[in-house]
Amino acid sequence: MFTGIVEELGEITAVENLGDACRFRLRGPVVTEGAKHGDSIAVNGVCLTVVDHEGDEFTADVMAETLDRSSLGALGVGSRVNLERPTAVGARLGGHIVQGHVDGTGEVLERKPSENWEIIKISLPGDLARYVVEKGSITVDGISLTVVDAGPDYFTVSLIPTTLALTTLGLKQPGAPVNLEVDVVAKYVERLLASGQGAGK
Which of 168, 161, 177 is closest to 113 using CA atoms? Predict the structure, then answer.
């Protein structure tokens, strides 16, 4: 489990095509500290497994399903990525519960800068809109954010200078794809309510 609090802005240093998958080599001095084979690291919100680790770099395999359902397939050598290690048991939950299981992708629609923050508008797939509510939580490229406005096919988030400086959202311009993970609690509630309705028939 992750919390959506990005630990560092890493970089993809190599991409190996494996046919129906690919292998990323990524640089991240913070997240590689103490890393070992089999560990999990979230890359732009996608939970990946460490295959190998050397110095401040690690490799991770990404299967076709993940490439198709996330924005990782659009990344290449030199791409900057948000990195986070799983939260430790008993640690503070600084963001919200994040699984690292991307529900879909959106697109940066517009950016509105102000003196001390920036509003970013992001497109929202129709099948995810019911899980996104004003002042609720959403994960964008692995970043735990609070929804400012929730529309039928979009939402907005307000970013402080720290988020702009230390994550990919400070770099992405309109048209750029982003990974989205909605609040898992909302999905559980929906499933439980649907089960209850079925049982009462």
Answer: 161
CA atoms within 13 A on the CB side of 143: 23
**118 close to 158: Cβ distance less than 8 angstroms:** yes
- The closest alpha carbon to 138, from 174, 106, 181, 176, belongs to 181
Q: Whole-angstrom Cα distance, residue 191 to residue 195?
A: 6
Q: How far apart are CA 188 and CA 66, in angstroms?
A: 22
pTM (two decimals): 0.90
How far, in Å, CA of 5 to CA of 15, rounded?
A: 26
pLDDT at 12 over 70: yes
Q: Could you report the per-residue pLDDT of 24-67, keeping only the tens digit for each? A: 999 999 999 989 999 999 999 999 999 999 999 999 999 998 98
Residues 160-187 pLDDT 10s: 999 999 999 999 999 999 999 998 888 8
Q: Give the three-class secondary structure for 73.
A: helix
- CA dihedral (174, 98, 87, 50) positive or negative: negative
| CA distances from residue 136 to 19, 46, 150, 187 in whole angstroms, order as listed | 39, 20, 9, 13
Angstrom distance (rounded) from CA 51 to CA 38: 6
